[in-house]
Design goal:
- The chain is α+β, with helices and mostly antiparallel strands.
- The chain has a single domain, classed as Alpha-Beta Plaits.
- A hairpin with an 8-residue loop joins β2 and β3.
- α1 runs antiparallel to α2.
- It starts with a strand and ends in a 5-residue tail after the last strand.
Length: about 110
């Protein structure tokens, strides 16, 4: 049985560019990721109670129908999309990624 995969990106974005970054994520970056066809849904959530002095924190989660589809995204699309964000917001954010296999959901 193929299991779905959750790809989570946790990001701390500089408050000075937060509003611009959030609009860019919603209008451009997330639609670009979804247009790859490797993910079936996404969520963008602000992390509460963890606000930094200089940053706002978010978790962006993409659900892929299989590990193979995630690897397709990683191998064919992720470098271009990550480079686009780095070019726009270099030194204005920090992020880390987590890949999880979904075993149950409701």
């Amino acid at each position: 049985m193929k299991r779905k995969v959750l790809y989570n990106i946790t990001i701390a974005i500089d408050k000075e560019v937060h509003d611009e970054w959030k609009e860019w994520m919603i209008r451009h970056h997330i639609p670009d990721v979804m247009s790859t066809g490797c993910f079936s849904e996404y969520k963008m959530s602000m992390i509460l109670g963890n606000e930094g002095i200089d940053s706002m924190n978010y978790a962006i989660q993409y659900v892929s129908p299989s590990i193979e589809k995630f690897f397709q995204y990683r191998d064919e699309h992720s470098k271009r999309l990550i480079n686009d964000q780095q070019a726009r917001y270099k030194d204005r954010y920090a992020s880390f990624m987590t890949l999880m296999e979904i075993h149950d959901e409701g």
